[in-house]
Amino acid sequence: MALKVEVVGKSGRLHAILRALLDSVRMPDVYVISDVNNPKLVPPDRLYCGKSDDRAFVEQCTRQIKPDLVVIGPEEPLAAGIVDMITAMGIPCIGPTQKLAQLETSKAFTRRLLAKHDIQGNPEHRIFTSLDGVEEYLRGLGEFVIKPDGLTGGKGVKVSGEHIHSVSEGVRYCAELLRAGQPAVIVEEKLDGEEFSFQSVFDGKHIAHTVPVQDHKRAREGDKGPNTGGMGSYSCEDHLLPFLEAVHVDEAREINRLVGEALLEETEQEYKGILYGGFMLTKKGLRVIEYNARFGDPEVMNVLPIMQTDFLDICESIVAGTLDKLPVRFQNQATVCKYVVPMEYPEKPSAQGEINVDDLEDMLASESRLRVYYGAVEGTSERLRLTGSRAIACLGIGNSVPEAERIAEKAASLVKGPVYHRRDIGSSKLIAKRRSHMEHVLGSSGTRRLIKYAS
Questions:
Q1: What range defines the domain where residue 39 resides?
Q2: What CATH number does residue 56 fall under?
Q3: Does the residue 413 lie in any domain?
Q4: In this structure, is residue 171 part of a structural domain?
Q5: Are residues 28 and 4 in contact, defined by beta-carbon separation less than 8 angstroms?
């Protein structure tokens, strides 16, 4: 009898996880609990539409589905304790408990964890639960970053010189966050370097790693405009990045491993799910920007399609605590992901515009190196409507980043309607810009590998 799997979530990340499960040679029966009534996921009788962080709703659906395994996609259900509820029902779950998910839901928790266990990568920082001492600390740092303690959908972080232009503005923003109910604000030194995402799978004791990915948060080309949930991302065929050496990836692996060990020691609970470190390579070395307790969106789309190991086998190994016995391997292929989003996203996105994906579906049928993941869309397969967030992720796979970028760009351009995408993600021009930035930060000797990516 086929394994019955329930996937909980929303957005293109949900579709990517779903596809990886459906691609398993074991052909599981997959059911979906989704925030959006997305017709591109599964047949209607396998789609349960409602709030994925509503404990009562998810419990009701789970009792109807009777799954053998549950996979959680986004952070909101983790924060709501959905994993605790499902495991109490006797059903194994991919995703950390509410206590363990503090790694993402509380930035203060993560900074304290790294400090207490002497894990490298913590930037200079202070945690404030009131405004006492904030102004003095901001003046001492000169350039700074202010972060809310809790979840804000990736849009709560403000940086001096970009969003905040004086110490007094910084103090006001801290006051605004505390008045809004944030239990704390974290003030950190402003770092200079290039960010990357590194996702690992963890069974509570053993860890396996994916490949580094660079995300693009800014809404507009040239890294301009407001921050978003992520407009696209890329990974390289050598499983490095244009500005990373193997030693940097090894450091990220070690930090993720040590964080997993520290969580077990700190909470006495086994973390079963995804450890996603957000890192920055700086002149002083690798720094931890943040941690997430689930796959990234869009970064999940860069790693699952080139994963050679059966994803369902990985999920079962996480549950069983036997990840050390399963080789987790990836194809030596580059990937480029571009998100198609509503016009004026994220400020005032169109929420009801209709889009046409006929040409995109035709390309998907004929191009084996293309993957398409549907996110914030509803309606029918023939008449799709936008719901106001990131709508469609187009992923190109190739022997090089330029080859993958051409596929992703052609696909994203085929979506018709009130939408746009960043054409520069994965482009030689943007990668050359990142190379130039790292040459400035590290010096030319630290960026020898970048030359081949700029041609």
A1: 4-97
A2: 3.40.50.20
A3: yes
A4: yes
A5: yes
Q: Is 370 exposed, middle or buried (0-12, 13-18, 19+ CB in 10 A)?
A: buried
Closest CA to 116 of 105, 101, 127: 127
Specify whether 34 is located in the same domain as 75. Answer: yes
CA 89 vs CA 36, 60, 78, 247, 375: distances in Å = 25, 11, 16, 43, 29
Domain boundary among 148, 163, 189: 189
Amino acid letter, residue 79: A
Three-state secondary structure along 309-345? CCHHHHHHHHHHCCHHHCCCCECCCEEEEEEEEECCC
* pTM across the whole model: 0.95
With respect to residue 157, please indicate whether it lies within any of the assigned structural domains: yes
User: Do 151 and 70 share a structural domain?
Assistant: no
Q: What does the buried/exposed string (b/e) look like for 435-444 if buried means 16 or more CB atoms within 10 Å of the residue's CB?
A: bebbeebbee
For 82, phi then psi, to 5°, come to: -60, -35
CATH code of the domain in which 138 resides: 3.30.1490.20
pLDDT (tens, 9 = 90+) of the chain, 455 residues, equals: 899 999 999 999 999 999 999 999 999 999 999 999 999 999 999 999 999 999 999 999 999 999 999 999 999 999 999 999 999 999 999 999 999 999 999 999 999 999 999 999 999 999 999 999 999 999 999 999 999 999 877 678 999 998 999 999 999 999 999 999 999 999 999 999 999 999 999 999 999 999 999 999 999 999 999 889 999 999 999 999 999 999 999 999 999 999 999 999 999 999 999 999 999 999 999 999 999 999 999 999 999 999 999 999 999 999 999 999 999 999 999 999 999 999 999 998 777 799 999 999 999 999 999 999 999 999 998 899 999 999 999 999 999 999 999 999 999 999 999 999 999 999 999 999 998 898 889 875 554 444 344 43
Q: Tell me if 239 sits within 8 A of 249, measured CB to CB.
A: yes
Please check whether residues 91 and 132 belong to one and the same domain.
Answer: no
Domain count, the chain: 3
Tokens representing 53 are 């962080």
The answer to whether residue 300 is domain-embedded is no
- Bridge partners of 218, per DSSP, are 227
Q: Which residues contact 39 (CB under 8 A, 6 or more apart)?
A: 377, 378, 379, 380, 381, 384
